[in-house]
Design a protein that fits this description.
The chain is built from five helices and twelve strands. By secondary structure, the chain is of the alpha+beta class. InterPro entries: Benzoxazolinone_Detox_Enz, MoCF_Sase_C, Pyrv_Knase-like_insert_dom_sf.
Length: about 220
Amino acid sequence: MPILDSVNIGAPAPNPYKQTRSTGIDKRAQQGPVQVRPPGPKFTGLGSGLVGDYIGDGKHHGGDEQAVYAYAREDLDGWEKRLGRSLPNGFFGENLTTRGLEVSGALLGERWRIGSEVELVVTVPRIPCSTFRGWVGERGWLKTFTALAQPGAYLAVVESGTVRSGDAIEVVHRPDHDVTVALTYRALTTDPELLPRLLAAGDYLIAELRESATQQRTIDLD
């Protein structure tokens, strides 16, 4: 069964990579339980879905639709081999480092139960930003990261509660469509012609993505 390898939160630190003054990208694994709850809307909400976690750029990160960011330990291991360096849990800024779960292969609207209380729903892929590029510090990093299309997934909080390292992760619902996080990422980055395919996700597609997909379909039909 998939498990939660670690729960990671970040404290505010100076951000030399962006106009925002601070960042919480340097996330560290926590030993004890961490409270998870819906953070509310961007700008006016609490930012992260994890209590104690810091979001520096509230315009582009955080809020209910991006409350929790998950990345697979197996994908981090792959990046370690490619980059020739150690990447500890949380290094990509993820709140949840999973093991035994294809995070980028998850479907939009897929629901995960973590431990005995928390339920999350997959919403959108992570789109890398200048803070991520500067933090990793590899030449051409955004291009390299984008090409592999293993972005990890943002999730919204359906049921609040606490999570901790070692908790079991159960996929309790898989929607009846084929729109994965990785496909959505490619549509939003390198392959915009894929955008209309996102409409197959139906009600699981957030409004922003539905608008982009509908606009592209209109262009294709013209």
